[in-house]
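Late entry, evening session. Most of the bench is empty. Finally got around to the prediction I had been postponing all week. Sequence below, unchanged from the version circulated by S.P.
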Amino acid sequence: MSVHKPVLLQEIFKGLCLKNGDVVVDATLGGGGHSKQILEIISPDGKLISIDRDIEAVENFKTKLKSLKLKTKKENVVIINNNFSRIKKILESLEIFSADKILADFGISSDQLDDPERGFSFQKESRLDMRMNKEDKITAWDVVNKYEEKKLENIIKKFGEERYARSIVRMIMKERKVRTINTTAELAEIIGKSVPRKYHLGKIHWATKTFQAIRMEVNRELDHIEIFLQQSIEVLNKKGRLAVISFHSGEDRIAKMIFQKNARGCICPKEFPICQCYRMPKIKIITKKPIVPDEKEIKINPRARSAKLRIIEKI
């Protein structure tokens, strides 16, 4: 049974302006919390396409659907095991060439995080894996045991924004000379020995940022987000809306930059008296500042604390 708690649920649905008959893409199915609520709003005439790169998420939601009393026809719910960065081809394969609303939650599913077999969490000992798609070749074990020192340090600095990246990687390299690092517990222990004692007393666990960075590298998360956002803007209908939830500054930065770029009109130099580029804005930004969870939601679901919601509309 899924334990995933959807973040900013009411804010998402209010911002997307969902209605009966909409064609909606839930690009990150996860535990299915968003998809379930979307179906209730857009039924009986709407169509939902739910996507996830994790086959377990797909199969779990298919099972869950059987127990739901849906107002819509079965053919109006399509569940796809694929990467959301292929959203355009996914829709084309279904002979759907545009969507009214698109939603993406870039955070890792609680179901994945809490599954000890997946190797995402330092709180449960398991083999270093961290693949969202089990068919992918690169695992966390490969990143930790095979990457060159400088590359590994850059990953932990960039994706984890970890101030002690250098000392952590030096300790990893020292351990690699003696043995392979096989489990999440072994890696967490190494990280713990690499950072100052005061770091152990912080609000977040000392291994959080390093584990996050390795997971993002394994799954090439930022690369896929950038592709997804560009394609989503392309496939949206006029007046269609896209909502994205980020949990990492890098994710939010990419969304902000892409939205600003596509919301911009003329880019001619200021000294030009008349526009020569004829560039027109493709979208308008609905959320001038990202929407964040209130204290009540964070108390109920601590994993929501870093969530940021941005919404745009196709012109």
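Two things to note before I forget:
The mean pLDDT is 92.
The first strand starts at residue 23 and ends at 26.
Will write this up properly tomorrow.
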